[in-house]
Amino acid sequence: MTSRFPFPVSRFPALVLVFALATPAPAPPPGPLAFPRDHGSHPSAAIEWWYYTGNLADAAGHAYGFQLTFFRVGDFALAHGAWTDGARKTFDFREKAHLTLPGIAEFAEGRLEVSNEDWSASERAGIHRLRLRWENRTLDLDLTASKPPVLQGEKGLSRKGPGEGEYSHYVSISRLSAAGALVENGRRTPLSGAAWFDHEWGPGALPQGAAGWDWFALQLDDGSELMLYRIRTKEGRATPFSSGVFVPPTGPTVPLRFDEVRFRSTREWRSPRSGGVYPAAWEVAIPRLALELTVQPLVADQELVTGRSTGVTYWEGACRAAGRRGGRPVSARGYAELTGYAGRDVPGFSGR
Amino acid sequence: MAGNLSDILADVPLSSVPAGSPSVSEAPAIACRELRKVYGGAEPVIALAGVDLAVAAGEFLGVLGPSGGGKSTLLHLLGGIDRATSGTVSVGGRDVGGLSERELTLYRRRDVGMVFQFFNLLPHLTVRENVELPRLLDRRPDASSRAGDLLGRVGLAHRAAAHPYELSGGEMQRVAIARALVTGARLLLADEPTGNLDTRNGDQVLALLDEIRRERGVTLILATHSHAAAGRADRRIEIRDGRLVAG
Amino acid sequence: MLAFRFVVRALVTGPARRHPLRLVLPVAGVAIGVAAIAAIHHANRSVTESFRAAAASVAGRSDFTVSGPAGVPLEALRAFSFLWDVGSFAPAVTGIVVLQDGTGEAADLLGVDIAGDGAVRSWELVSPADRASLVRLSGQNTVFVSETFARRHALRPGSPMRVVAGGVPRVLTVGGLLRFSGIARAAGEDLVITDLTTAQRILGKSGRADRVDVVLRPGADRASARRTLASQLAPGLRIEAPDRSAASADRMVRAFRFNLNALGSLTLLVGVFLIANAVSISVLRRRPEIATLKAVGASRSLIFAVFLIEGAAIGAAGTAIGEAGGIFLARAALHAIGGTISNIYLPTARISGGSYGSPALLAAVVGFGAALLATVIPAAEATRVPPSPAMRAGSVEAVRRTRLVPRALAAAGALALAAAASFLPPLDGFPFFGFSSVGLVVAALALAAPLFVLTVARASGRPLRGLLGAPGPLGAGFFGGALARNGIAVTALAMALGMTLAMIVTVASIRETVRVWVETTLRSDLWVKAAAGKSSGLVGDLPEDVVAFLSAVPGVAAVDPFRAREADLDGRPYTLGSGDFRVVAKIGGLPFVGGADARTTAERARRENAALISEPYARRFGVATGGRVTVATPSGPRSFPVAGVYRDYSNDRGTVMLDRALYLAIFGDRRVTSVAVLAGAGVDPAVLRRAIAIAARGRYALSISTNRELRREVLRIFDGTFAVTRGLEAIAVAVAILGIANALLASAVERRRAFGLLRAIGASREQIRGAVLVEATLTGLVATAAATAAAAAFAYLLLAVINPQSFGWTVSLAVPVSTLAGAAALVLAASILAGVFPGRLAAAVDPAASLAEE
Per the CB < 8 Å rule, is A309 touching C113? Predict the structure, then answer.
């Protein structure tokens, strides 16, 4: 299925595969994934991350978005945190980078417990406790999974390209209900909303020929979720390994092929920071699901420039969508991730 | 260095004169002819402009004249302390101007005794050591006893162990006289010896000089600006602006 | 104003222009003194600054640091995590790597949280140019070095760097180039930075860090953070100031540096005498001019001011020349001192020249001030010259003589005080009273010198007369006739020569003691430690398995491993070590103070879990056999009974030795610092060494010394420590000889009239030269005799008071008579020689001209 690709941090910068096979090479046998064990760290994998995004609102109905990501790259522990204020139209992010060390940045095995400085995420009995803080702002959230984990790809083994190392183990929780509070400058604001959790681990190889990717995770107000992934070539076309998944309110997940999705961006936004030109609104249609959506970012500028940690510049932001499914009107909240638009992206590609 | 350690310890005596004895065994007569002394420099100074002089053996000559007029220069030339620019100085028949450096040293040591106006004595030696010094420089073992005798003669035997700064001006001059005679020199040159003394002490010193001259048969030349001081002299001359002046 | 200038021209600049050479000696004397002071002060400051910079490059911005006797276990970092609310913290592993690129240099290795270290230490990657590259570039055995370091060792990003780390040869890869900022910039140039894991692995420090640095945000409550942290840490861990290594390094070399300072001051002191001499001379020479000026109405203060100006001018000229010369001397001194420090105390210390500004300023102030001070008395004398020329120098001397008796009493008093002070204990580990005693002896010397001069002058007249004729008593008279001047010259030379002789005895005694100690204690055939490049110190250590490796080499009969590492008690550094007491219990070989038997003592120590301490430690920390020592352990401070005190001349830090089994049980530190190897019967140690080297190739990087090489090395280090001292002694003596020459020259100049008179009454030139040589000889003889007496006092103070209080070594006296006699003879000959030129001047006086001066 689809997945997010690892950012291009790797010990072997020239790791672009020499050969491209027409058919997928055999992947290592995954073994059955079990939880909570596989929510924990997998040290044998070169790269791993725990990715939380969510849309929140306060009692007055103001909309916020948050992102908290913990990356494990070899011996390094990196983290990104972002906060979107829909009312004030502001966006703010921080990054952290450390060696994996007790008390500084840790990843537990056998259970979900990760931390980097004073950011943390841990899971007990289905409740994920998150903490994100910087300067005078602290966000504490309890996320309760509403649906069981979704194993992407083949029982959690997700192919990203034809090459042998172009895969990852991929688990998502497509809807968690969020409750918690933001304490800012001594003022406490209770928040609630919905969150998305992704956990991937693998060798971290780049798919050959990819210039970047666009990723969307949308939670519809009829209880279903949609995730779409487009790997873009240099010319801007989607590769065959692009795909998506639809999670209905009940019942099994529906994998989507890349040619089943009609996708068009309708606006552009130019970053004053990096000069990158990002798509800034989309029209998505999936005939098989009778689904049409128009997607827009909550705030235009939700770009992260993470020179200190991953070296990647990308856009990750809260979005709103509206449209129809099965003839009935629907709206949705979610997150979109756009990489490869700022030229400082995937090393080995644009100008390194 | 011209000499070495052995030279320091043993002077080479003149071969023509017996070692240790004065070249003249009696008071010398002195003859100067056309004696000139010019000091060089940016502007040459003519100290003596051609002086003719004759002094009899054993005579007491008084040389008068103003300070800077040439009296001291004349005495320096007679004493072998300085060399004439031209002209001759003959002492006891010897041409002083023709003596070598070595011979001049011995001449000053043995044949001449000088008494100056001040700074006659080395301050760090005792009175006795000062008196015996010229005799000691001549490496003579009787230096000490001779010094004692002479000190007795000038009436200062009781001050033999004192240092010059403990003496009065008059006493210092009397010690200088004793020192001038310790090697048996027969020519005594006194350059303003009483210039720093009061009248009484000055008279005492002049009387002593005269007595000793008579006792020992010494040619005495006294340079002074005071006519009174030159009163005891047998003869008086005057040198002014480097020339002998009549009268 | 016009009158002032005229007076200056008449008294100072006129004569100076006519006879410029006469000023050469005093100016030279001051120049040398100033140069010495500037150079030494510069070296000292550079040392301190270098230590501080080195410490700062590691300490960075941290507010405090946490460390422990066995490092900080990484698990303990969890106790710090509350600090993220108020700041940040970063662990570091420190160690030394020795470069194998032919330079043999040792460099400090710093293993850090390489992605997150920026909060604490101020360095940044300059090539390649962005921070994310650190994450990408870091890997196994990847290091980062400064641009300067890279240039010096011909490295580029991507180059391999062959080093020895932890006794094992490694190939590291240069990942990129760094630049430090701030105070750490200079010192940071010699740091090799890598990630924590790599450092742990190659230094053999798995699972722990050496320090954890904490940085608090501005406005955070420091005291409360510290308290909370202290309450959560294990008992063996300590919170301390971040740059404590600078303070501790400073302490380590403090005694060494104080010796340098003392010697530098000595040199200047001698120079000051020269100035006093010089101005005295000029005053005496110009008494007639002064009299004349006074007679025409010049005031006393004008005369005083003029001579003060002359002294100031000499001081200024000497200072200027000294400053210029000092720059070169400073470089040489720094090189020598830095070499000694890195050879003996701190192998990676790179002493780089700090700014020359402050030492130059200090030397200028001191030199100029001393010149002025030296001028005051002679200038005051000048004001007392009466307008009438009736009074002569003799009367001034008379006044002086009557003050001799109180001076002699004062000298005796100073000596008594010196003796009393020598019994006092050290202040803060510093032999303050010992050095005061030395100063008092010098004062006694200065006070008594005129009396010596007078006595010798009076007593020598008669015998010299019999021996040499007239020049004898003449010379003796000259000698005794300038009490003040000759007294000063004698004092200066006696002081310099006395100190030199005393140092000769001290050094010879210590060296001989060390030599004997080396012979008795170094019993093994081979001595193995980690390869240290060109440093003689202990650089790094070896993995535990080296013991088994050595034992397995054919021809090895026995191996005896030792562990020695840095420790400190309340900030005072010492060495903590372990060895196998069973070996000593069996074969002895450790000399104990008080003659205790090595075997029984070691056996008792082993049985009772007691410590053996070295003599310097016993002195420094005031512990004796039967007492107790406190050692910081991972579970808190622990005290051990002391079974014996052994003599150890290998360092002055002091060592506490525990039995190896006990040490392992407490610290779990299995690494080995050095191994003594005993060859089997009939096995040639040189052959065995080759066998070990071949077997170790690629596996360990070893430095193997034979017994003889080790002995030679110990003595070589010892000699190196005192090399700088020797240089300074030579300077001091040279300056003092200049003082003699100056005094004699003054004599020749002042006594023009006397020489004129002497020529007039029939002294030959040779006789006058002889008199001056007699004066020179008497000066040299009196000075040498006084120096010998002073040397005895100094040597006693050095060996019995200062050395024990600074270093704590037992030293048996060894007096190298021939060397001493040679030094004294050399100085005496130089003094006599110093009379040659003045003698020629004196003999050349034209009697007529000098007598005409009225």
Answer: no
Q: What range defines the domain where residue A213 resides? A: 44-339
C836 to chain B, any CB pair closer than 8 A? The answer is: yes
Beta bridge partners of residue A92, listed in sequence order: A83
Strands B30-39 and C142-146: unpaired
Q: How many CB contacts within 8 angstroms connect chain B with chain C?
A: 122
Which chain B residue shows the shortest CA-CA distance from C768?
B8
pLDDT of res. A352: 20
**Nearest-by-Cβ selection for A307 from C76, C132, C196:** C132
> Using a CB-CB distance cutoff of 8 angstroms, which residues of chain C are in contact with residue A13?
136
Domain boundaries, chain C: 1-58+251-391, 61-241, 543-699
Does A346 map to a domain?
Answer: no
For the record, the structure tokens of B195 come out as: 């210039």
Domain total in chain B: 1
Task: Assign 3-state DSSP to chain B and report helix, strand, coil percentages, each to 5.
Answer: 35, 25, 40
Q: Is residue B50 part of a domain?
A: no
Contact between chains at B119 and C753 (C-beta distance less than 8 A): yes
DSSP character string of C598-620? HHHHHHHHHHHT-EEEEHHHHHH
Per-residue confidence (pLDDT) for residue A6, from 0 to 100 = 39
**Is A200 within the bounds of a domain?**
yes
Q: Which residues of A touch C114 (CB under 8 A)?
A: 99
Quick: pLDDT tens for C637-646.
899 999 999 9
Q: In sequence order, what DSSP letters do the residues of C38-107 get, joined into one string? A: HHHHHHHHHHHHHHHHHHHHHHTT-SEEEE-BTBEEGGGGGGGGGGGGTEEEEEEEEEEEEE-SSS--EE
List the chains bordering chain B where 3 or more Cβ pairs fall under 8 Å: C
Token pair, residue C687, equals 């052959």
Q: Burial level of C262, CB count in 10 A (0-12/13-18/19+)?
A: middle
Contact of B41 with chain C, judged by CB distance below 8 Å, is answered with: no
- A-chain residues near C139 (CB < 8 A): 11, 74
Summarised one tens digit per residue, pLDDT across range B134-149 is 999 988 888 889 999 9
> CB-based contact (8 Å) between B158 and chain C?
no
Q: What domain count does chain A have?
A: 1
- Chain B: closest CA distance from residue C848 (Å): 6
**A102–C116: do the CB atoms touch at under 8 Å?**
no
Inter-chain touch C461–B196, beta carbons under 8 Å: no
- Give tens-digit pLDDT for C771-789: 999 999 998 999 999 999 9
Q: Which residues of C touch A11 (CB under 8 A)?
A: 136, 139
Q: What is the CATH number of the domain that holds B203?
A: 3.40.50.300
| Predicted ipTM of the assembly | 0.86
CA distances from C630 to C234, C570, C622, C770 (A): 18, 10, 12, 70
pTM: 0.71
Are B and C neighbours with ≥3 CB pairs closer than 8 A?
Answer: yes
- CB C760 to CB B110 under 8 A? no
CB contact under 8 A, B8 and C398: no
For residue A240, give the DSSP letter.
Answer: T
Specify the CATH number for the domain of residue A185: 2.40.370.10
* Interchain contact, A311 vs C130, CB within 8 Å: yes
Which domain does B110 fall in, by range?
58-86+98-245
Quick one: which H or E segment has residue B147?
helix B143-153
Q: Report pLDDT digits (tens) over C725-774.
A: 677 677 777 777 877 787 787 777 778 888 988 998 989 999 999 999 99
Name the pLDDT band for C263 (thresholds 50, 70, 90).
low
Separation in Å, CA of B221 to nearest CA in chain C: 16
For the cut 50, the answer to whether the pLDDT of residue A293 exceeds it is yes
Q: How far apart, in whole angstroms, are the C-alpha atoms of residue C285 and residue C382?
A: 10
Residue C588 has pLDDT above 50, yes or no: yes
Q: Taking CB atoms and an 8 Å limit, are C139 and A309 in contact across chains? A: no
Report if residue A16 sits inside a domain. Answer: no
> Residue A251: inside a domain, yes or no?
yes
